[in-house]
Each structure stands twice: as structure tokens, then as C-alpha cells.
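Subject: Sanity check before I submit

Could someone independently write out the C-alpha cells for this chain? I want to compare against mine line by line before I put it in a report. The sequence has 439 residues.
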Amino acid sequence: MSSGGLELPPGDSGHEGGPADAPGGAPGGAPGGVSGGVSGGVSGGAPTGVPAGAVSLAPTAASPRAGAELDWGADAWSEVRTRAQRAGRAYIWLNLIEQRLRAVVGAVLRPIYEPVHGGDDWVVAAAGPAGQEWVQRAVAVREVSRRKGYLLDPADDNVLSFLTLPQLRELMVQHWPCFEPYFDDRREIELALDELEVTRNVVSRNRALSRAVLEQAERASARLLEVLGGGAGSPAADRLPIDAVEDLVGDRYADVISVHPDRVRLQRQLPAEDLFGGARRLDAIGIGLNLLVQNFSGRRLVRLTEAGCRVRLLFLNPASSAVKRRERELGLRKGELSRSVEMNILHVRRVRAGLRDPSRFEIHVFDETPRFTAYLVEGESSGIAVVQSYLRRARGMEAPVLVLRGGGTRDSSRDAEHGLFPTYREEFESIWEDSRPVS
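---
Independent answer below. Compare away.
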């Protein structure tokens, strides 16, 4: 046989690769198996260049292209980005929890065991017989990291830094009487760590993390950090930002924490009760302030003010020429927008009339061209603002929304250097000075 393909084992004349009645006399082709030159092909219609009884290695039109299954389309890339974003957020929270728990375990157990056992042996002693296996594994991993140069920070050159979150939890549970003077509720800590275990397992193996599990992990992490930060005299929320990821990447976006294409989507993520409830200071400016007036009841406003909130509301004067221009922009009937603003002002006046101290609830109107609407809400330790620009052909419900993080009443200058919150605060104060009170 000539070369040109891999030969199949010889069989009967009906399976040699050519028909039994092929020209040349002998079944399967000419005597000897090949007629003419190899380059001329196999008699009986076999593929060109492939001898009779051979399997071609050349790809055909029907063969799939090598590596075609490795390509990622737009949907695949979108899914991968979503997975990476969720895993990244979860990892930051888990990292914070592990660092905090490691510091707590070291602060409580080191003074007890280190004077007796010294060095890193205090961790081995604290683990005891029940934890001998995993603590020895941590010792071995540290030695490997030393030899391979993985220890980039000398502060991490200790056994405690190589314990995982479950192992730190085990040390805490085993020695709970030592931790009890500092933390009130052991069960709350254990439940929070249980909730985080699912997320830790998923993130460590780079598997898909659902939005629900991520949100549960963020809530558990915030609660756990608050519990583990006890005994310092101030809530952990005052020391740690509400969103740890926001703080780490905040310089990229100033104090903008979210953007929504319209107010409907904003209210799905941030209902009026969450936005205004618990406020200690509420300043709002706009044409009709519908987000507040139509979504936060008058009784709730009364309770909020009686609880100590200072309210200043700044409406566009319904009798001004700016209202008429806005009506023409939106294609509204004459007087339609001005009547809506009047109704909102009458509503908040009734709210103010029901207060024991009406001076805490101020209502003003301004006559300038409205450029934006803003709700500046500040609590004791943090603030938030919802800001919308007025578009020529879009109602306030349809305009894009920025949500800003601002300082609270205790520290209003915390985000003043690079944030937008102080810019809108300054603009509000300027317009307030030029406005007129509503009797």
C-alpha cells in the first residue's frame, strides 16, 4: 500500500472501500488494491488522495472547527462579569470579617496562652487536641509560604494569620468563657457566621453566587462587624461605612453610590420609608416635591418631626412664570402644574399646623428657574441625598436619579472634599436665602 492515510484492517471484498463491481476486474478496485497513482484517487469514487480502506485525517466541511466551543458570546461575558462582581463584593466582606475575628481572637486568647507557651505555640495550645489537625496544617502552610516567599508582610508571619474563618470560629466557641465578658450574645455571632459559611464556600471555589445569598451575606457581615466592634463606646456603623465595597472604590465615583434611569426604579431599591425614616435633618428643593409629599404620609411626617427631625421644604412658587414655562415644556394644560404644586403646599401646611413646635417645619417658595430637585436627608452618623436634574421633555418621575452619600449631623464635613453632597447642600442654602416663607 502507498502512504496517504491510516489503513483499516482488511475485510471481505464488500468492505474494502470500493464497490464489488468496480472497474478493473477485482472487487474493491484494480489488482493490488490501487489503480493508477495515489494522487489520482481511489477507484470507485473514494475521496481524492485517500487510499481505499483508509480513514482521512483532514477536516471536512461538516467537521466542527477546532476550539469553537471555547468562544464566549456576549451573554457568556455578561454572566461572567455578574459572577465576578458579586464574588468581589462578597470577598471584601469576608475579608473584613476574617481580619476582625482574627484580631478579636488574638486580643483575647494571646494574653492567656502566650505567657505559658510562648511564640506561635500559644495558638497550638489554644487549639487543643480537638484542633490539632487543622492547626498543624496551618503551621505547615506557613512554612511553605516562608520558603516560597509568599509572606509579603512580616506582620502575617504567624500561625494565627493562616487560620481560616471556621477555625477562628472554633477557637472562639471553645473558649467562649474568655470572650463572654466582651460580647453579649454568642448565639447571634454563631448564626451570623453560619450565614456567611455558604458564601465563603461559594467564593473560595469560584462558583456562581446568587443575589439573594450575596445580600444575606452583606447583612450578616454588617451585623457581625457591629457585634464584634462592641465595647468601644460608639456603634460600629460610625467606624465602618455602610457599604464596605463603596468605601474601597469610592474615589472613582466621588460620593455617588447609585444611579437609576428613573424614579420608579429608585423607589424599588430605596422606598420613601427607608429614605426619610429616621432622619434628623431633611431639606428638600424642587417644583412640587412629589417624592416626599405623595409617598410619605402626613402622619409619618408629623411623627418624624416630633421625634426631633428639622424639616425645610422649598417649592417652586406656583404663581411664578417659571411654572408656566415648565407647563409648556411638558405639554401640560395651562394651570395644571401650578394647581398640583398648590395642593402639595396645602398638604404640608396641614402637617405643620398639627405640630407642637411648628418652627421645626419650615416651608418656603422660590421664583427662580428650577434646575434640579434634591432631597438631602441626614441622620446622626450618615446622610443620603437623592438628586434629579430637570429635563425639557421629561417629568420628574422619568428623569435619571443620582443617590449620594453624605455626612451625618455629627460629622457633616466627612465627605466634603470630593463629594457632590456638599455642592447640592450649598446650592440649597443659597436658594433658601433668597426664598420667601409660606405663612
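---
OP: Matches mine. For the report I'm noting this point. Residues 74-117 form the longest helix (44 residues).
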